[in-house]
Amino acid sequence: MHELSLAHSLVEILVEQFRERPNVRITTVYLRLGPLAGVVESALKAAFAVAALGTLAEGACLRIEHAPAVVRCRSCGQEQSFPTNAETDHDILLSSLVTLPTVCPACGALSLDLVHGDELELVAAEVVDG
Amino acid sequence: MAKELVVLEQRLLERNDTRAAELRRRFKEAGVLVVNLMSSPGAGKTTLLTATLPALSPEPAAVVVGDLATDNDARRLCTATPWVRQITTGTVCHLEAAMVEEAIARWDLTQLRYLFIENVGNLVCPASFDLGEAARVVLFAVTEGEDKPEKYPPILHRADLVLLTKSDLLAPLGFDVQRFVASVHRVNPKVPILPVSARTGEGLAAWLDWLRVLRGAWLSGSDERVRARLQLPERVNHEDQRS
Ligand SMILES: Nc1nc2c(ncn2[C@@H]2O[C@H](COP(=O)(O)OP(=O)(O)OP(=O)(O)O)[C@@H](O)[C@H]2O)c(=O)[nH]1
Ligand SMILES: [Mg+2]
Ligand SMILES: [Zn+2]
């Protein structure tokens, strides 16, 4: 359950970011998650609800955008993107929703580098003032 | 009350990553190679370290070991090195850079050549947290089955070496090494794989070589984090060990 640690980091960042604006309340938090971030989405949402209690983010909705995993072939340079399937809340590791290739789909070479996929990023917050 | 969208674009683990980068800078300055050992519970991390430390001697090596509770592992290790710190994490299922920072606070790093961080036994959570290590080593025990690696891709994604531990049990278990290697390489096509047994000593020499070569490469490299894919002896990469 490192989702709780992640949720605390998230709330810490939000508190920090809006320190100068004490009247702000956060209504929605937008996150970007890659499939290899090692996160269970439903656990992160539950942890965030708890971590946000008593802060400006209490009750805020957590909206998750799925970033694709991207591999690049060392041989031909081709990049291929592998999106996470489905859009619903997941209660399994996101990594099980994407299947990465072992050979380059373009040239068949075995030398693939993973260039994206472990994103764990706060994108934006929707706030109301007052 | 007007709604406003504030763009923040920040990594969730930025704080941990900043701390880790600072630790890595300190380790490099002091000439310490730091290895983060990760596996599921009981894969053989502590046992491997109790065999590794005397074999590295007289090169001084330290261990920071994380567990949810008890200092059993630290007590097992303290006969092998005077530099041992136990971190008990309570309910936290992984180590974070701040915990490592605190654990090493009173050590003179320049006295050390190696620092092993035994992470909490867990194949999921530790993957996200940079501890300032130069290399990540993931251990799978043969008792866990051949297809365990591809079930836990995030931990392998940044692995620099995979150790297949308890290799003395390959034959009795009829373990299929080829299937295991294929499973690892489905996630991380380049990572070297080395079977080791703390019981028979198999693979230990190659493991020590890997550490020594990596330390040299890391200290001389200009990269902050060298993910050197080192050349391991031919046979350890693909050959079937069952015979
Ligand atoms: N047969 C065999 N057993 C081993 C070997 N290495 C470790 N074991 C056994 O595996 C069990 C677990 O080993 P540990 O070294 O405690 O494993 P660990 O990964 O440190 O465990 P945690 O810290 O609890 O996650 C012990 O009973 C060891 O004796 C090996 O090379 N061969
Ligand atoms: Mg242990
Ligand atoms: Zn290609």
UniProtKB/TrEMBL annotation, chain A:
Keywords: Metal-binding, Nickel, Zinc. InterPro entries: Hydgase_Ni_incorp_HypA/HybF_CS (IPR020538), HypA/HybF (IPR000688). It comes from the Bacteria. Zn(2+) binds at C73, C76, C104, C107. PROSITE patterns: HYPA. Pfam families: HypA (PF01155). Gene3D superfamilies: 3.30.2320.80. Ni(2+) binds at H2. The keyword Zinc applies. GO terms for molecular function: nickel cation binding; zinc ion binding. One of its GO terms (biological process) is protein maturation. Belongs to the HypA/HybF family. Involved in the maturation of [NiFe] hydrogenases. Required for nickel insertion into the metal center of the hydrogenase. This is Hydrogenase maturation factor HypA. It comes from Thermomicrobium roseum. The gene is hypA.
UniProtKB/TrEMBL annotation, chain B:
GO terms for biological process: protein maturation. Pfam families: cobW. InterPro entries: CobW/HypB/UreG_nucleotide-bd, Hyd_mat_HypB, P-loop_NTPase. Keywords: GTP-binding, Hydrolase, Metal-binding, Nickel, Nucleotide-binding, Zinc. CDD domains: HypB (cd05390). Residues 34-194 form the CobW/HypB/UreG nucleotide-binding domain. GO terms for molecular function: GTP binding; GTPase activity; nickel cation binding; zinc ion binding. PANTHER family: HYDROGENASE MATURATION FACTOR HYPB, HYDROGENASE PROTEIN ASSEMBLY PROTEIN, NICKEL CHAPERONE. Belongs to the SIMIBI class G3E GTPase family. HypB/HupM subfamily. This is Hydrogenase accessory protein HypB. The gene is hypB.
